[in-house]
Structure formats: structure tokens, C-alpha cells
Amino acid sequence: KLFFTDYGNAAKVERCDMDGMNRTWIVDSKIEQPTALALDLINKYVYWLDIYLESVEVADYQGRRRQTITKGRQIRHLCGLAVFENYLYTINSDSLSILRINRYNGTDVQALASLDDAKEIRVYQKRTQAAARSHACEADPYGMPGGCSHLCLLSSSYKARTCRCRTGFILGSDGRSCK
């Protein structure tokens, strides 16, 4: 799945398959300007920053069990968001520091380090790295990913795929080659 935020005409947190299909709204009310997103892959929670409402919130993948983690003017200066164990990590663009926030109560906020310039933060942890397994976009005997001439995108599962073309090309009637 692909998770993303949008604050165009109607602000929301959404998810879809990797090929863009099955687009689903997770949160679409009491949200104004979601600018960063982080996933708890193990427990299936999505966290986001809303800089307009000055809040950090969480909900499960279906938009249920929504809670506010923390609120306040300091949120408008945050960018980037990552989750690891009991904490959220973010960048304060005003003080140029990495902040650690307790994701269960939001009160334990600690500055960890100063930076020259950063807009995004990621935590890499072995448990969240999926084990490699065969999938529908593996190269065929001719070296084409999933048998697609340009792009192969996983669909509703790792066993299904959709072929797409680069800009300026159209997908042929075989659903795999681009012209």
C-alpha cells in the first residue's frame, strides 16, 4: 500500500495500492493541512502532522481509533515524521533540531541533536524491512520487470501487477508494451 496526505480542495490522509487503484480515505474530517506522515507497520497505525491545526494525530489504517498525540504552537515548525518503538521523531525547522516525542502521551518531548538543514527524517529498523520474496514485478527472462516494457507497479498484492508507460507513451493492447 501507498499512504499519503493531501490538503488541496479537501484535506485528507489516504491510502491506495501501489498502482494507484483502490484509493481509500483514512481521515477526511477535522483535518486541514497534513504535511508529514509516518506508519507503525507492526500495529498498523498512521501518524500525521497537521501544521494548521497544530497537532500530531494517529488513527488505524481504517481511520478508526483516532487520537491526538500532542497540540500546540510548536507543531507549526515541525517537518518530517518517523516512528520507532515508543517515540515519534521529527525535525523542528525553527531550531534546526531533531525532536523525540512519546507517541503514547505526547508530553515527553526531547531535543536530541542540532542540524544545519533538514526537512525529512527516516528510521531504518530491521523488523520493518520486509523479507524478500518473489513478486509479480520480478524480471522476466528478457530482463523486463513483470514482463512490462516500461514500469511495473505492484497491485492489490505482491502477486498482482499493473504495467504503465513513461510520459509520452501509451500502453499497447497487450497491457504490457508501450508505444
Span between N and C termini?
28 Å
* Largest sheet composition: 4 strands, antiparallel
At the fourth level of CATH, the homologous superfamily of the largest domain is: TolB, C-terminal domain
Helix content: under 10%
* Low-pLDDT sequence parts: none
SSE order, one letter for each helix or strand: EEEEEEEEEEEEE
CATH names the topology of the largest domain as Neuraminidase
Give the overall shape: elongated
Tell me the CATH architecture of the largest domain: 6 Propeller
Q: What is the mean pLDDT? A: 89
Number of helices, where a helix is a run of at least 4 consecutive DSSP H or I residues: 0
Structural class: mainly beta
The radius of gyration over CA amounts to 19 Å
Report a brief summary of the structure.
The chain has 179 residues and is mainly beta. Helices cover 0% and strands 40% of the residues. LDL-receptor class B repeats lie at residues 1-43.
Description:
The chain is an all-beta fold. The protein has two domains: 2-126, Neuraminidase (6 Propeller), CATH 2.120.10; 133-178, Laminin. It has strands spanning 2-6, 12-16, 24-27, 34-40, 45-50, 55-60, 67-71, 78-84, 87-92, 97-102, 109-114, 151-154, 161-164. It is elongated, with a radius of gyration of 19 Å.
Topology:
Elements: E1 2-6, E2 12-16, E3 24-27, E4 34-40, E5 45-50, E6 55-60, E7 67-71, E8 78-84, E9 87-92, E10 97-102, E11 109-114, E12 151-154, E13 161-164
Antiparallel strand pairs: 1-2, 2-3, 4-5, 5-6, 6-7, 8-9, 9-10, 10-11, 12-13
Task: Give descriptors for this structure.
179 residues, Neuraminidase, 2 domains, 4-stranded antiparallel sheet, 40% strand
